[in-house]
Amino acid sequence: MAGAESCLLGSKLQWQLKVAVKKNKNYIMTGSFRELKSYQLAFEAAREIRVISMSFPKEETYSLTDQIRRSSRSVCVNIGEGYRKRIYPKHFTSKMTDADGEATETSIWLDFALDSNYIDSTTHKNLQEKYDEIGRMLNSMALHPEKFVPKTNN
Q1: Could you give the maximum distance between any two Cα atoms of the chain, in Å?
Q2: What residue numbers bound the domain in which 37 lies?
Q3: Per DSSP, which regions of the chain are E strands?
Q4: How far apart are CA 42 and CA 95, in angstroms?
Q5: φ/ψ of residue 149, rounded to 5
Q6: Per-residue pLDDT reduced to its tens digit, 103-112
Q7: Is 26 helix (H, G, I), strand (E, B) or coil?
Q8: Which residues are CB-neighbours of 100 under 8 A, at least 6 positions away?
Q9: Looking at the 3D structure of the chain, how many domains does it have?
Q10: pLDDT under 70 in the chain at which residues?
């Protein structure tokens, strides 16, 4: 195994991979990140943010509007990237914590949108609840990457 790849693997998974390579097993990348509840909820929230941000004032185009759309979409992107590299638990964990950071950033932009009266308190509350749930799911995923390791082909 290459040195960089070996450094990224936990000792238990590293041992499993060495055994699998010796037995000529191939890892099967089953499922899709699109099946993850965290991805589905993040995608739904990002869609809602795009729609509501269309009514933000023109002067916010390159600040609040752009930032809230970018961070909300980045949650989804980091989940997808991490899931595709889940054979490397540390990389997976890193991407899930990046996604959680983007979710927190989106939550803060929502606070600014509420404070600027661009969204009402009900919209703010509903989206904040979604991002709180997304954050809990991402935290659990980051703490338990072993639950997402691909299956082996015997």
Answers
A1: 62
A2: 3-153
A3: 26-28, 151-153
A4: 14
A5: -65, 135
A6: 999 999 999 9
A7: strand
A8: 134, 135, 138, 139, 142
A9: 1
A10: 1-30, 152-154
Residue 48 is predicted with a pLDDT of 98
Q: 3-class SS at 119?
A: coil
pLDDT of residue 150: 82
Is the separation of the CB atoms in 78 and 86 below 8 Å? no
What dihedral do alpha carbons 121, 130, 60, 98 form, nearest 10°? 150
CATH number at residue 135: 1.20.1440.60
Query: What pLDDT does residue 30 have?
Result: 59
* CB-based contact 90:9 (threshold 8 Å): yes
Q: Which two tokens stand for residue 88?
A: 């490397």
For the entire predicted model, the pTM comes to: 0.79
> Which pLDDT belongs to residue 5?
44
Could you give the count of Cα atoms lying within 13 Å of 138 in the half-sphere of its Cβ?
Answer: 28
Distance CA 142, CA 115 (A): 32
**Packed helices 37-53 and 121-143: angle between N→C axes, nearest 10 degrees:** 150
